[in-house]
Amino acid sequence: MKMRSAALMALMLSVLSSAAYADVIVHDAYSFATVSGTKTGAVFLTVGADAADRLIGAETPVTKRAELHTHEDDNGVMKMRKTDGFDVGADAGLTLKPGGHHIMLLDLPQPLVKDQTFPLTLVFEKAGKVETTVLVRAAGDVPADHDHGHDHGAGHDDHAGHAH
Ligand SMILES: [Cu+2]
């Protein structure tokens, strides 16, 4: 009997711990190929969330310097600015896209090559570290889905039924 209840407890714990990771789903991470000599790149992606969270950092083996950047209007000129985090809405999630929020890769030791993939770890305030894979696309080749900021909400509904 003791063995059985221990096994049941272990099962319950594993269910609980996996549920903790269901709060944030990262998808469609991509970057653009860089020309040699350019030491900067940017990563764009979509985050779906069951509960509000905040993206507070990013790490990747392709560079030691990955920063969260946003664009802001400075007298009609859009300029990049480093920021300490992006809010992830429970319904809206978070979309990083060209011309808006992005993860800046600085001091790249090697260029990013089209069709290459690389790992990226996102750090969330509540969900903790979440791993994703970034696909390097041809420069300027923005995926169609990211042109429509409202589309990702529909896909997110698929995850709404997850247990907490
Ligand atoms: Cu930037």
TrEMBL record:
List the SUPFAM superfamilies hit by this protein, alphabetically: DR1885-like metal-binding protein
Instruction: Give the superkingdom in one word.
Output: Bacteria
Please name the Pfam families in this protein's record: PCuAC (PF04314)
Sorted UniProt keywords: Signal
Q: Give yes or no: UniProt keyword Signal.
A: yes
| Basic and acidic residues composition-biased segments | 143-164
Q: Which residues form the signal peptide?
A: 1-22
Chain spans, region Disordered: 142-164
Q: What is this protein called?
A: Copper chaperone PCu(A)C
